[in-house]
Inverse folding.
């Protein structure tokens, strides 16, 4: 159909939505939609995080997702973590489904525990919904080095291969 865009293709539309009905609960979704194709959804992520405020202070992304990986570090390096309190203040749980058109559809579950203002640990399980694929498991230990972050990750990938990753990077880089 004819569109008034000077005969140039439209760029994909992006959207995100986050709702925090309680201070310990956040639900979110984000998507990319291409109006130039009939089945225009290119990506769609949705999830829920329990105890998101505390998770955000220790490396979650802007939606409160509590993944402790280099992809989801908080970009604001000046943010100070909340004071540690009871056990319930120290953990977060994230459940998420991620869809990438023609590539993958995965379900992730992450449980994170914060030992102190500088140390945290997490366990992540990923399951790929596509036939013939399996999930990944990962254990992660993270240390806040003030302006830097140090991570040690031990995992098992979908092909049952073990991997160990040690990273040191500037806070807010990812």
């Amino acid at each position: 159909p004819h569109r008034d865009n000077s005969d140039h293709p439209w760029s994909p539309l992006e959207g995100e939505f986050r709702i925090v009905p309680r201070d310990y609960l956040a639900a979110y979704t984000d998507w990319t939609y291409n109006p130039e194709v009939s089945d225009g959804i290119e990506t769609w992520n949705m999830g829920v995080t329990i105890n998101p405020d505390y998770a955000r202070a220790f490396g979650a992304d802007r939606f409160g997702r509590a993944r402790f990986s280099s992809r989801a570090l908080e970009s604001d390096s000046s943010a100070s973590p909340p004071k540690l309190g009871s056990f319930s203040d120290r953990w977060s749980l994230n459940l998420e489904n991620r869809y990438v058109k023609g590539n993958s559809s995965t379900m992730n579950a992450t449980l994170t525990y914060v030992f102190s203002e500088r140390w945290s640990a997490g366990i992540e399980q990923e399951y790929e919904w596509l036939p013939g694929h399996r999930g990944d498991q990962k254990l992660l230990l993270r240390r806040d080095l003030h302006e830097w972050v140090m991570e040690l990750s031990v995992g098992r990938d979908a092909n049952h291969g073990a991997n160990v990753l040690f990273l040191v990077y500037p806070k807010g880089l990812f």
User: Anything to note?
Assistant: The longest helix spans residues 52-57. Residues 55-59, 62-82 have pLDDT under 50 and may be disordered. The two ends are 40 Å apart (CA to CA). Strands lie at 13-22, 25-33, 41-50, 91-100, 104-114, 119-128, 136-144, 148-156, 162-170.
